[in-house]
Amino acid sequence: QVQLVEAGGGLVQAGGSLRLSCAASGGTFSRYAMGWVRQAPGKERECVAAISRGGGSTYFADSVKGRFTISRDNAKNTVYLQMNSVKPEDTAVYYCTARFAWQTAHVMKDPGSYDHWGQGTQVTVSS
């Protein structure tokens, strides 16, 4: 069973950048499609980005498209979320997630489709 540990959250001003990382252990990282799911207070969980096993396919929510990028380094068992031009509405707890196989965007955007979750890291964007 894969374990996921996020890092890199914090406080950032609107318009700034932040990079989240997620280190995986206890499983064969390259077998998992990875995602980043966020949850803001009082709001539903939202998958903002996902990446396939080899990194050739990605998904981005409309709310972050053009501002966030996702990447992975299978040699380091790590997935990244680069957040640029952040907005106050990006404030949330960000969770690293994993599922065994890449599916269509309809599946990948569903937070409930992920089997493994990290503990989350808080991102706060000040205006």
Considering the chains and any ligands shown, give keywords for the structure.
mainly beta; globular; 4-stranded antiparallel beta sheet; 7-stranded mixed beta sheet; 1 helix
Structure description:
The protein has one helix spanning 105-108; strands spanning 3-7, 10-13, 18-25, 33-39, 46-51, 58-60, 68-73, 78-83, 92-99, 116-117, 121-126. With 127 residues, it is mostly beta strands. The longest helix has 4 residues, at 105-108. The model has no long low-confidence stretch (mean pLDDT 96).
Question: Quick one: overall form?
Answer: globular
Strand proportion, as a percent range, falls in over 45%
* Computed structural class: mainly beta
What is the typical, i.e. mean, pLDDT?
Answer: 96
The oligomeric state is: single chain
pLDDT < 50 runs, ≥5 residues: none
Q: How many whole angstroms does the radius of gyration measure?
A: 13 Å
Number of helices: 1
Largest sheet: 7 strands, mixed
Give the strand tally.
11
- The SSE string, one letter per element, is EEEEEEEEEHEE
| Share of residues in helices | under 10%
Distance between the termini: 40 Å
